[in-house]
Amino acid sequence: MAPGMNSLDASIGTQIPTKATIAFLQDLSRVLPASRVSTDAAGKALFRSDAFTLAGGAPSAVVFPESTAEAAAVMQVLAAHRLAIVPRGSGTGLAGGAAPVRGEVVVCTSRLNRIIELDLPGRTAHVQSGVLNGQLNDAIAKQAPHLHFAPDPSSARAATIGGNAAANAGGVHTLKDFVTSNHILGVTVVLDSGEVLTTRGMTGVHASPPFDLTALLCGSEGTLALITELRVKLVPKRGGVRTLLALFDSAGDAGRAVAGIIATGILPAALEMMDGTMIRVIEDAYHFGIPAGTTALLVIELDGDDALLDGELAEVRAVLTECHATDLRAATTPDDRAKLWKARKSAFGAIGKLSHSYCTQDACVPRSKLPLMLERIHQAAGRYGLTISNVFHAGDGNVHPIFLYDDCDPAQVANALAACREVLLAALELGGTLTGEHGIGVEKVGLMPAAFDSDTLAAFVTLKLAFAPSGRLNPGKLLPTDPSLAIIRL
Ligand SMILES: Cc1cc2nc3c(=O)[nH]c(=O)nc-3n(C[C@H](O)[C@H](O)[C@H](O)COP(=O)(O)OP(=O)(O)OC[C@H]3O[C@@H](n4cnc5c(N)ncnc54)[C@H](O)[C@@H]3O)c2cc1C
């Protein structure tokens, strides 16, 4: 933690509070009712980590503002007491970005949950940052079924729009729809001083001089500011949809098919891949009748003008057949399609049947390097004696190896982290990145010096200090300012 920065007395809620704690809670009580400040053991347990459970700590307090003005007042109190802050949405993040690893105060947006305006003719929505992605899309569907907020992480029913923006989330349709930052027009944020800043965007097709601060704040993982409101783009759903399942006896053939489909010039809405381990988990849970011995599966979704789709589908089928697909199954009804996507989106959850604990990695490589990357993942699994299953956004080159381990066994935890490190460094070696959509958090921050040279890292830190000079906002996350916090080390 930077000099001059406090985490509150860890005794809050368990022992007699210290003077500093009493003073902080008194000041806080002037801006928030007691019902929206949690300092008890339940709060400490509930908010100790996000979905990356290997990083965690007891928060000093958890606070729940309901408006930008309240959030600003809270941030002013935190500034006066020089307390470090972790912004948090729903805590579904997979990189420890929302974990209060050093007892920071968690500012949770779950009560910032109002849809302020749906401007359907203008095709925008103005929402508070704690509105859930699924909640917004349900509200849009009631009034304008042809429109939606396009970012669709598999966690959409649970994750907040603020969390989607802060992590710059992707999803199964990122190949065509791009990551969240492309769908955010403007944000209102509270700086660590308590000042409020609003970036403006009208329709997303115009430039917004002088600097594109909206894009900068997207993906900043709570290190620059607390997002309290967002103005987001609503886009038309595309008319027709064709969804195809392709089975393979060889992962190499499936990899070649991915490259072949992209090479046709057709841009699928989604192009997802699963390996044999994952297929068996899905088959156990959903009974698609996938033959034993199938080692790779692709889900391909085409969308657009109905009149063109059957021609595109025939082209894709030809590539799949040429790459030795053993079976091709089209989803012929909306129910079939929904079942297919439910299976894909529930894949991480279904892994719970196989293992006590798991860690989902996230890295990108150029599509052409996917077969090599899968080979490197396979080698890491062998070297560290782990089972690894793969379900990933093949069209984006975004791999998600899932490392299975038992978190009660320190040796298995160490092996899982060592395997993660090897896989992430392999992605960099192949010309890729440390993350495609889950972010860096505290999990991967130790590897940032392998991804960026020291001048670039120094420029990132200068930029961070321009927004958050106190260093109190999500310290040690995203930028390697405190190497002792890193979970995976160089
Ligand atoms: C089962 C499962 C499936 C998933 N599928 C996907 C997927 O398909 N694609 C994908 O990209 N991700 C996926 N994720 C990861 C996660 O759901 C996303 O990163 C999501 O956007 C996080 O939203 P959240 O509200 O839970 O944010 P949190 O986990 O609470 O926070 C995430 C990060 O954003 C910061 N943050 C949160 N809210 C704010 C705010 N208001 N202001 C400033 N900073 C903030 C936090 O400090 C943290 O660094 C998945 C996770 C799970 C558990």
Explain what the structure shows.
This protein is of the alpha+beta class and 490 residues long. Helices cover 34% and strands 19% of the residues. It has 16 helices and 20 strands. Strands 15-12-14-13-18-20-16 form a seven-stranded antiparallel beta sheet, with helices on both faces. A five-stranded antiparallel beta sheet has the order 5-6-10-8-9. Strand 8 and strand 9 (196-198) form a beta hairpin. Helix 13 packs antiparallel against helix 14 (410-429). It is globular. The protein starts with 18 loop residues before the first helix and ends in a 23-residue tail after the last helix. The relative contact order is 0.12. The mean pLDDT is 93. It binds flavin-adenine dinucleotide. The site of flavin-adenine dinucleotide has 38 residues, from strand 3, helix 5 and strand 10. The site of flavin-adenine dinucleotide (FAD) has 38 residues, from strand 3, helix 5 and strand 10.
